[in-house]
Amino acid sequence: MKLKLLLMISALLLSACDSKDVWMPEPQPWGEFSIHFETRPEAVRQGMNEFLIIVNREGRRHIPDLLVHIRTNQSKWRQAIPDGALGVYRRALPVGDIHVDQLHVRLRYHGKEGELTFALAPKVIITQ
Fold first, then answer.
1. Going by CATH, does the domain composed of 23-119 fall within 2.20.25?
2. 58-80: per-residue pLDDT in tens?
3. Among 9, 26, 101, 115, which residue has the fewest nearby CB atoms (within 10 Å)?
């Protein structure tokens, strides 16, 4: 009985480990900031995905007065909500085709505005 329980727990733990590499685009600079994103679920999929926009500034994470709006090809612009004072901004948005759709990030800080575009999946190169 104990052996069966131990085997079942081991199987569950091993199945929870995922060896897949999750692709993420490189961070992009915007002024003094470095911008990148993560998603929940970890690998972008068709349907709703939570986007975590992570904004870093050398020496500091929290950037007061920074407004972050995001959209995908499937959505309108939506304000990403700050997650405390961590430099993380969150918003769930729909994704259609991960190889076609992109994440658009609009930033506004002290009168400056800018927009960055991120791919949601690596480019697929087809050779024949």
1. no
2. 777 678 889 999 999 999 999 99
3. 26
